[in-house]
Amino acid sequence: MGSLLLTFLEHLVGCQCSMSKLRSHQRQWCMGMGPCLRRLAHVVAEAAPTNSPQTLAWRARDEQGNGKSSFLFHQPYRISKEKLKLRENDKENLVREVLESEEVSVKDLLSSWVRKMGSRHIRSCPLQEEYPANSRVAKYVPYNEVARTVNAVMKDLGQRGYSKAALEVFEWMQLQGWCKLDPHLYTTVIYTLGNSGCLHLAEQIFADLEGTKVKKDTVLYNALLHARSKAGQVQAVLDLFDAMKEESCRPNLITFNTVMDMFVKEGVGLAKVISVFKQMCKQGVQPDVVSYDILLAACATGDHVKEAQHLYEAMKKRGVKPTVITYTSLIAVYANTGDCRAALQVFNEMLTAKCNPNVVTFTAIINACGRGGNVEEAQTIFEAMKEFGVKPNVMTYNAMIDVYRKHGEHKLAQLTFQEMIQAGLQPTNVSFTCLMSSFKAAGAYDEVLHIYESVKQSSLLCSVQTYTEALDACVKSKNLAGVTRIMEDMRMAGCSPNAVTCSVVLAALGSKCSNVDEAHLLLTCLQGFDSILVHCCRNLLVLPKSDNEVSELMGDIFRTIKKEDVKTWTVLSSSLMDALWALGWYRRAALVLAWVYQRNLFDGLTVLAQSEWKLDVRRLSTGGALVTFYQWLAHLLQVVHQVDLIVYSHHAGRLPQNSDLDSESTQIDRTEIDSLFQVEVLVPLFPLNLHELENRGVVSLTKDSEDKQKLLFPSLVTVVTGWGKLSKEEGSSQVRDGVEREIMKLGVPLRASYDAGRWTAKSEALIRWLLRPETAARLVLWDIPAETPH
Fold first, then answer.
1. What is the pLDDT of residue 349?
2. CA atoms within 13 A of residue 84's CA, in its CB half-sphere
3. Where is the signal peptide (predicted)?
C-alpha cells in the first residue's frame, strides 16, 4: 500500500497523470482503505483542473451529500450498444403490452414494469458490466433510464395514432415522484398529441404549465406551433408566434420553418411565405436547406417560375447545398407550367451533383413531360427508373396513366393500369379516375360506368372526382337517369359536389334536356346537399331574385373557389349561363355574364378598329355566346342612338340625297325613334361614350355645314363563332349553330363569310336594321322561366 501511495503522490506532485488515472487510483484506495484516505481524495479533486466539467460535477454532488462525500460512488453513466438494444426491446415490449392488453389499465402495466425493472439504490458495481442473456440476475436500471424508456413509449404510441394511450402514459408519469417533469417531457407530449390530431389536449397541457415551475422555452412553443400547424389553424399559429415574442422567447429556425410550411400547406400564397422568410433573415436567423425547400414548394403551388429560379440561385450563393427534395421541388415548379425541357435540365444538374433521384423526382418529371405534351420523354423517364433501381409507386403509375389520357392513348393507359396491379400495388381513387377519364375521352362511356361500379364495390370510398367523371360520362351519353342515380349515390355517401361537379350538372341542364320534365328532374338532384356552392347554384336557377341578390349569390359562389383557379371558375360560370339560358332566365344570364366580365375572367371578347368592329365568342359556351351576342347588338343600338346618323332637317324629316338608307325609312320622326330605344345594356363590352371611342381612335365625329354631328361608322361588323372553343378546324359547333339560329330569328343582316366560323355585315345594312321600330324590343332580354320546382 505504501508503494501505491508513493506512486499516487508522485503523480499528484508532477500533475502529469491524466484524470482517468487519478480516478482509477482513487477508486482503488477508497475500496480498500478507511475514511482517513477520503480526505486525500478531496486533495486529488482539488489538484484536478478547476474548469473541468467532471470536477465541477463532483463538487456539486459533494455539497449536496449532507456532509458525506458521495462523488466516489456515482460513476458517469455509460451505456453500450447492447444496453441500447435492451432499452429498445423494453420499449417495444411495453408498447405491445399496452396495445394488446384490454383488462389491465395502462397505469397498472407501467407500475408493474417499474417495480420489476427500476431501482433507487446506488450501484456499487461498474455500470458498463454486461449481463448474459440467460442470467437470472435482476436487470435493475436507474429510474432516470426508466423515465427515458417510458418517454419513448409515450412518443411511439402518439406516432402510431394512439393518443389516448399516450396521454394515459403522461398522466401516470405526472403521479410519479421520481419522474421530473421538465420542458423536454412536456415538449414530447405536446408534439405527440399534436402529431396525432389531438390539438385540444395539447392546448390544455400547454395552458396547465402556468401553474408549474416549468419554464416555457422556444422548443416548447415550437411543439405547440407544430400542433396548430398540423390542424391548419393559420390565425392560431400567428397568435402563438406573436405570443413568443411577448414572452421574450426568441423564435429559432424551426419556428420560422414551421410557420412557412403551414402557409404552404394551407395555400396562403407565396407572398406571405416570403414575408416570413425575410423576417427570419432580418432577425439574424440563417436559413437552411429546409427553408429553401419550403419556399420552392410554395412556388410549385402556382405559376412562380421566375421566383423559384431566383430562390434557387440565392440558395447556391449562400452556400446551401441542394438536396433531393430541393431538386424535386424545382422540377415540380416546371412541371406545373409544362416546361419539360427545364425540368430535364434540373434533373441532369441533379445527376451531375451526384444526388440520387427518388421516386418523387421521377414522378415530377413524368408530370412535366405529360403537361408539355412529350409522351415519348415520359416513357423514357419511366423506363429509366429501373436503371436507377427506383421502383415506381402508385403516384408514378397514376402520372403515366394521366399522360396517356391527355393524348388519347386509352389502350396504353389501360395496360399501365394492369401493370400497376401486377406489380402488387393497390390502385387509388386517382388511378381509377384517370382511367375513367381516358375511356371517356375515347367515347367509351359504358367502360367509364363499369369502372365506377367496380370502385363502388371495392373497399375504396369514391372521391368527388370519381363521381364527377361518371356524371360527365352520363351527360355526354345523354343518360340523364344515370345522372340522377349517381347524384343520389353522392348524397347517400355524404360527398358534396365541387365546382366541377356542379359544372357537369349545369351543362346537362343547358344542352342535354329535351323537355322541361328532364330539366326539373336534374334540378331535383341538386336538393339534399349541405353545400354553399350547390345552394347558391340552385337558387339562381329556381327562385326569383333581384339584381343585388344575384350579385350576392355570385359572390358566394366565387368565394368557394380559389382565386387562382381561373379555369374552374370560367367553366362553372359558362355552364351556369348555359343552364339559365335553357331555363328561360335570359336577363339573369346577362347579369351573370356582367358579373364575370367585370372581374376580367372573360377578356378579349371585342376588338374595335376604325375599319372593323369584331365580337369573338369562340371561348364562350353556347349560353354565354348567345347572351354576349344580344348584348353586342344592344351596344351597337345605343351607339347609333347617340348621334345623328340620319342627317335630316328639324322641319322636314327628309334624308339627305347621298343617304344609303332605304326609301321606306325616309319619313321618320325623331321622337318616335327615341321612344323605341328601351333596350338594356348590362354587360359593358365596350364604352358607350362616343368621345371616349373617338379618343381611342375607333370612331370619327365630323360636323356638316348645318353644324350637325355625323358618325363615320366602321365599314364592317363581324361576329366570330369558330367551329368550337378556340378551334381552327372546320366542323360542327354548338356555339355556331346557336348564334346562327338567333341571327335567322332576329333577321340580322349578318352573312356567313367564306369560312363558316365568321359572320359579317356592312355597317349601312346593320344600321338600317337597328333603326327598325321593332328591333329594340326584340333585343330586350326578359326572364321567361318555365315552371320550376321550389
1. 92
2. 4
3. 1-15
The answer to whether residues 783 and 587 touch, using CB atoms and an 8 Å cutoff, is: yes
12-47 per-position pLDDT tens digit: 444 444 444 444 544 444 444 444 444 444 444 444
Whether residue 789 contacts residue 524, with contact meaning beta carbons closer than 8 Å, is answered with: yes
Residue 536: how many CB atoms within 10 A of its CB? 21
Q: Where does residue 143 rank: exposed (0-12), middle (13-18), buried (19+ CB within 10 A)?
A: middle
pLDDT tens readout for residues 103-133: 677 777 777 777 776 665 544 334 344 444 4
Q: Sort 474 into a burial class: Cβ within 10 Å, 0-12 / 13-18 / 19+.
A: buried
The overall average pLDDT reported for the chain is: 76
Cβ atoms within 10 Å of 164's Cβ, excluding its own: 12
C-alpha 227/C-alpha 203 separation (Å) is: 9
Predicted TM-score (pTM) of this structure: 0.64
DSSP 8-class letter at 137: S
Range 360-367 average pLDDT: 92
Query: Cβ distance 311 to 295 under 8 Å?
Result: yes
Residues paired with residue 703 on neighbouring β-strands, in sequence order: 709
Q: Which residues does residue 712 pair with via DSSP β-bridges, in sequence order?
A: 700
Q: Among all chains, which residue has been given the C-alpha cell 363563332?
A: 721
- Contact call for residues 751 and 718 (beta carbons, < 8 A): no
Q: Which residues contact 632 (CB under 8 A, 6 or more apart)?
A: 606, 615, 685, 719
Secondary structure of 525-548 in HEC code, one letter for each residue = HCCCCCCHHHHHHHHHHHCCCCHH
What pLDDT score was predicted for residue 566? 81
